[in-house]
Design brief:
Blueprint (H helix, E strand, L loop, with lengths): L1 H14 L2 H34 L2 E2 L7 E10 L17 E13 L5 E12 L4 E5 L2 E5 L5 E3 L2 E7 L6 E8 L4 E11 L2 H18 L2 H8 L9 H19 L8 E5 L9 E3 L3 H35 L1
């Protein structure tokens, strides 16, 4: 049976027109190369997740980190999935139509054509017992456990709908570039402090009177620092901000290719297995398509 199947495939390869043969070869070669690239990336993801230790938001270092907590909606407009109308912190959906075509020999081929797809780019939070971190999901590889697919066969052509969601308070795993930045209020406060210090410099006699503690006619570094602290206290007093302003933590895509940005509602150990399985399947496709290319080219060269 196998010999008959191989002989039939060889016969079809020989009968192909030259342009048809080389189109198929190019497609198979492209699939093989793409599979190798994806295999390398997915395997690297699994290795990185195994190697990078889990951090807490409050004590996370600046740079590439792994966080585990719960998804949290930010204050402001509610995020709603356009497909199902469900409230969530992140969504991705795809609408497909079932298309049937015929070739010149009358053979039919059925495939799903993507009509519309959309991925949420709204910011949301990851929260653990120590603090909160803003998640910027742009360019993230998102693996959502909350996924469903349904069909609508009463329309022509039939449609298939796929929706993935991350909902509020759902367990969330994240690995990416962690940065702590001052929020807008802190930045505004610093600008006002600098403006106030410039005003004081324009009245040097007044500045020396208040902050030249040793009365030598000049402000030393320590005396200037004392003046800066006084300016900060005045700005805070004017705005009623005596407490320390909270810093803003952000997790986003890293510019380094070997540092993947991954968000997942699947536990870490299952996620690692998920990427390793992907890598294994991609490796199989790589060898299958690559071997097919070599085999088919050898058959044509023998003719």
């Amino acid at each position: 049976m196998w010999f008959e199947l191989i002989a039939s495939i060889e016969s079809n390869i020989i009968q192909l027109e030259s342009y048809e043969f080389w189109i198929i070869i190019v497609i198979l070669a492209a699939i093989s190369i793409y599979s190798f690239i994806r295999m390398s990336r997915w395997w690297q993801h699994s290795r990185v997740m195994e190697d990078v230790p889990t951090s807490k938001v409050r004590s996370a270092p600046q740079g590439y980190v792994e966080l585990i907590g719960h998804a949290k909606m930010m204050e402001g407009p509610v995020i709603v999935s356009p497909l199902s109308g469900k409230t969530c912190v992140w969504y991705r959906y795809k609408i497909e139509e079932k298309i049937k075509t015929y070739d010149t020999k009358g053979r039919s081929r059925t495939y799903w054509h993507v009509v519309k797809e959309e991925t949420s780019d709204e910011l949301f939070l990851l929260e653990d017992e120590t603090g909160r971190c803003v998640i910027d999901p742009d360019d993230a590889d998102v693996i959502a456990n909350n996924k469903r697919t349904w069909h609508k066969r009463t329309v022509i052509p039939p449609r298939r709908y796929t929706e993935e969601l991350i909902v509020d308070k759902e367990a969330l795993y994240a690995i990416g570039l962690f940065k702590t930045v001052a929020n807008s209020e802190r930045q505004k406060q610093r600008e006002q402090v600098n403006y106030l210090l410039r005003e004081w410099k324009n009245a040097p006699n007044e500045l020396l009177h208040h902050y030249d503690l040793d009365r030598d006619g000049e402000l030393s570094l320590a005396e200037w620092e004392h003046a800066r602290h006084a300016a900060e206290r005045q700005v805070k007093r004017e705005h009623g901000q005596f407490e320390k302003l909270e810093q803003l933590n952000v997790l986003k895509h890293s510019p380094h290719k070997n540092q993947g940005f991954i968000l997942s509602t699947i536990p870490e150990h299952k996620l690692i297995k998920h990427y390793k399985l992907r890598a294994l399947l991609a490796l199989v496709v790589f060898f299958a398509c690559g071997s097919s290319v070599v085999w088919a080219v050898n058959i044509r060269l023998v003719i």
